[in-house]
Amino acid sequence: MGLLIAIPNRNTERLEAQLVAQLGADKVQVWPDIRDADSIDMVLGWQVPEQLWSQLPNVRAVMSFGAGVDGLNLAAIPGQLPVSRIVDPELATDMAEYVLTQVLLHKTNMPRYMRQQAQQEWRPKRVHSHNKVGLLGFGQLGQAIARRLNANGFSVLAYSNSAKTDSDDVQHFQGAQGLQAMVTQSDYLICILPLTSQTKGIINADLLAQLPEHAVVINVGRGAHVVEEDLLAALQMQQIGGASLDVFNQEPLPPAHPFWQTPNLIVTPHCSALSRIDTVVEQVVANYQRLERGDALLHCIDRKRQY
């Protein structure tokens, strides 16, 4: 058996070293320096070149090097192969704290004060009273965000693919009408959806037009959830109150991108929730050993749903 690390354009030396220490040097290979393609049973990948799959005649499983699988072209991966993902329990805590911080920054006018500081201006403004947060997505991360927001006095609305029962803490929405109903009530709209063909570009001109004029958009999902030119236009025309973006269509965000200079927009470098390398290694090794024993892999996705 063998494991192939196929993660182009990233330094994987630390990851490789830890996997070698766990599995042995003879078991671990790194693309593109493949020593023995026939021995590879599992691929740990992100942005895997499509032509690679035809070069691995004995591959039996794929792991995404991430909490999502949008870094894998599922259509290019043979349909019989199970695909699993990394599940880091600490990600939920980190993500919830990031989102709460961004909501509070906008609620307390911090982007405005940062601009004023640069101009040496002294103009105080009352904290906003807006209190409703709409979540696009209510999986593990969305639920952790909801708990943190509830604990800090915010009312939470949540849109998800499957029907859920309202609770004292969260009001749920589903379907196209449900999405519209939630968006029109949201003072802060948080995107935490998985990236699928259905959710790509969900934050577009039509959706932005349904938000209240004071609303703030916070995207911690994937860059492709946002139609960037639509959000830029909404901010420039003051159609919405502000935004915080942690993910982008191109990363790092190019120096000439207009987002850098857009007022009331906070840009962060995809830092809202970073997996610990130890957690990644632990789960890759666990799945490798399960494959070796003939057991089902942990954290497999539904390929039809793409998450």
Main traits of this protein?
alpha/beta; Rossmann fold; 8 helices; 12 strands
Topology of helices and strands:
Layout (H helix, E strand, L loop, with lengths): L2 E4 L6 H11 L4 E3 L11 E4 L15 E4 L18 E2 L4 H19 L2 H9 L13 E5 L3 H12 L3 E5 L10 E4 L1 H11 L2 E4 L13 H6 L5 E4 L8 H9 L5 E4 L19 E3 L9 H17 L14
Parallel strand pairs: 1-2, 1-3, 3-4, 4-5, 6-7, 6-9, 7-8, 9-10, 10-11, 11-12
Helix pairs in contact: 1-8, 2-4
Number of helices: 8
Name of the level-1 CATH class of the largest domain: Alpha Beta
What fold name stands as the CATH topology of the largest domain? Rossmann fold
What is the CATH-assigned architecture of the largest domain?
A: 3-Layer(aba) Sandwich
Mean pLDDT: 95
pLDDT < 50 stretches: none
Radius of gyration: 21 Å
What is the element string, with H for helices and E for strands? EHEEEEHHEHEEHEHEHEEH
- CATH superfamily of the largest domain, please? NAD(P)-binding Rossmann-like Domain
Question: Rough shape?
Answer: elongated
Work out the count of structural domains. Answer: 2
Question: How many strand segments?
Answer: 12
Strand order of the largest sheet: 8-7-6-9-10-11-12
